[in-house]
Write a sequence for this structure.
């Protein structure tokens, strides 16, 4: 099913998705990889605020290439999400709801998604030039010293994604492969 | 004896770093288009269409195909009748990488210490391999390698009794456990033989060979074909969403090994398998 969604990602919107849905997101999202997540979780442990309001926020696991003159951002496809598994439950516990990346997640992350109505979206890994096209604004907001891994606030229009794991824990990586293999057997 | 200026090597490495990251090689483009034509699973067709659009945008607009512009793996085949003058070879290569990644707006993805981390800021050092060959030329190949796929690679030191079946099972095990993580459809590089270190290098070199080429030994050419077919029966599909196209190519490189061993390394690459070569 194809859905066009305006962010932020409220619990109601999040719960309406099913693994395998094709989703086009429009609105503000934030970028972070493992080094940024580590800092954010350390800040939370010290009782500090995050560099952005995590309520209903969507985080894109990406480290873009530098923008060429005239570009909003360089190539910007997803990185492997598993490296953020250690931090994702903490992020969801303070209100973050959407995650955009690629690759498998640990059961602990799926449990947290069920508890906090989280959604895990897949962007096409390796399609950095294509995905950059839907990023209309990019602003560095924290951790500049991390370079490509710094925290950025992005405004995206119709970002093409697929729901990989929904808030009930259904998983496209399992269901998609099983459906293909069972169709081939018949 | 032919003299080659170190500066010339720097210039070629700079150019190849940029071009390899912007233009997907024709063999890889062709393999992806061929797989798209054979793919009959709807979600997989959609993913492959986007992958094709992506490399077309990168080529037309001269931007990186993927944001992971990789570690710069540089292979030099240096003719034994060449004398490099005017600078240190390794420094000349690193300077080429430094300039290529700066002037090409490529991502700097190298940390200076594996445990203590800290970005080097210029994507150096290159992963440099040199080989002395006959002749008076230098063949320079740059293969930027992303780590989403590198992290899914494995090596195993088989005993000879494991036989061919052991190798076949291992290749499938590595691909299956990689699953959606390395941005499938993948290219699979297999090294068999040598020592622990040489075996891993063979697997990396297998990824530098055109994806539509075959091992010159018919025994291994058949094995390449068989294993590619078996991988494409796993159902992982493009991006792991399900489908036929789990891999677009599989290359095997071999060399002699010890009587007691049969090392096998599987180096996984993504659909953005980049390599560009120039002869000086």
């Amino acid at each position: 099913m194809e859905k066009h969604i305006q962010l932020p990602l409220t619990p109601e919107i999040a719960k309406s998705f099913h693994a395998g849905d094709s989703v086009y997101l429009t609105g503000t999202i934030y970028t972070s990889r493992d080094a940024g997540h580590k800092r954010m979780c350390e800040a939370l442990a010290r009782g500090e605020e995050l560099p952005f309001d995590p309520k209903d926020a969507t985080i894109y696991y990406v480290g873009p290439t530098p923008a060429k003159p005239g570009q909003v951002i360089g190539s910007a496809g997803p990185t492997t999400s598993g490296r953020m598994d250690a931090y994702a439950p903490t992020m969801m516990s303070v209100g973050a709801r959407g995650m955009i990346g690629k690759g498998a997640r640990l059961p602990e992350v799926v449990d947290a998604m069920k508890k906090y109505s989280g959604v895990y979206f897949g962007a096409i890994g390796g399609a950095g030039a294509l995905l950059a096209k839907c990023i209309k604004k990019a602003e560095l907001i924290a951790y500049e010293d991390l370079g490509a891994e710094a925290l950025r606030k992005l405004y995206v229009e119709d970002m093409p994604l697929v729901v990989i794991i929904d808030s009930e824990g259904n998983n496209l990586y399992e269901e998609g492969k099983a459906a293909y293999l069972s169709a081939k057997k018949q | 004896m032919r003299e080659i200026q170190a500066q010339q090597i720097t210039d070629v490495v700079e150019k190849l770093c940029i071009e390899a990251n912007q233009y997907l090689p024709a063999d890889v483009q062709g393999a992806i288009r061929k797989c798209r034509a054979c793919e009959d699973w709807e979600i997989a067709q959609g993913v492959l269409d986007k992958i094709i659009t992506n490399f077309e945008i990168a080529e037309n607009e001269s931007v990186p195909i993927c944001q992971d512009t990789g570690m710069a793996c540089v292979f030099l085949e240096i003719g034994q009748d060449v004398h490099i003058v005017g600078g240190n070879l390794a420094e000349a290569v690193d300077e080429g990488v430094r300039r290529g990644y700066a002037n090409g707006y490529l991502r700097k993805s190298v940390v200076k210490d594996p445990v203590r981390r800290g970005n080097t800021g210029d994507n150096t050092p290159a992963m440099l391999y040199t080989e002395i060959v006959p002749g008076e030329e230098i063949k320079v190949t740059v293969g930027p390698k992303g780590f989403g796929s590198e992290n899914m690679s494995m090596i195993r030191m088989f005993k000879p009794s494991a036989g061919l079946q052991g190798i076949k099972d291992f290749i499938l095990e590595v691909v299956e456990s990689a699953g959606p993580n390395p941005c499938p459809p993948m290219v699979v590089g297999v090294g068999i033989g040598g020592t622990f270190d040489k075996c891993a290098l063979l697997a990396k070199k297998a990824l530098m060979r055109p994806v539509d080429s075959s091992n010159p030994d018919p025994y291994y050419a058949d094995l390449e074909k068989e294993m590619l077919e078996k991988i494409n029966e796993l159902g992982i599909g493009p991006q792991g969403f399900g489908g036929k196209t789990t891999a677009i190519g599989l290359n095997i490189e071999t060399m002699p090994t010890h009587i007691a061993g049969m090392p096998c390394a599987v180096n996984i690459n993504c659909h953005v398998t980049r390599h560009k070569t120039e002869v000086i």
